[in-house]
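Hi both,

Apologies for the delay on this - the queue was longer than expected. I finally got the zinc ion-bound model through. Below you'll find the protein sequence and the ligand SMILES exactly as submitted, and right after that the C-alpha cells for the full complex including the ligand.
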Amino acid sequence: MAEVLLLNANYEPLNVCNVSRAVSLVLLGKAEILHEHDQPIRTSRGTIVSPSIVRMRYMVKRPMPQLRLSRHSILARDLYTCQYCGSRKDLTLDHVVPRWCGGPHTWENLVTCCRKCNLKKGDKTPQQANMKLKKVPRRPHFVPYLSLPKYMKAMQNDEWAFYLPVFEEFGTTMN
Ligand SMILES: [Zn+2]
C-alpha cells in the first residue's frame, strides 16, 4: 500500500504512515491533504483521492525523540555501502576499533562493511589490516521524528523531499 508523509501543523515531518490512516485523519477533520496521487482510491462508497502528503490541522506535541543507534540506522547513514570497498552486497556491521581492544559500540566506531572486507579485516584495526575507511564515521545530525531509515527513504521521493530537513552528510549523495 502507498505510504503517506504526515506533517505537523508547522510543516515539520511527523511520520510516514499508510494511506488508510491518513485518509481517516482527513475524514475526521484532523488533517488536510497537501499533495495527492494521480490514482484515486476506490471504496464501496465511491472513489476518494489518495493522499501523498497530509498536514495536521493542529500542533501535535511530542517529546523530542532520541536518534537511536541501530543496525538499520548505521546502514542508512552509510547509504547501504561498505565503507571500505564500496560494495552494496552482503552487508554487515564492523567495529572499526575491535571490541577486544576496547572499541565501543557507538556511532563513531561502527560502520557498514561487506562480509568480504569484514573477513579480511578480522580482529584488526583498519591500520593493522591496511584498510582505509571512505569517511570518518560520525553521529548523524538529528532527524526529528522520522527514524533515520525512514528519512533516507523519504528523501528519495521528490515530492516529500521538499518538506524534509536537509543534512549536509546526506543531502548531496541522495541525488
Ligand atoms: Zn567491502
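Main takeaway for now: The chain has two domains: 3-64+144-167, 71-129.

I'll put the files on the shared drive as well.

H.
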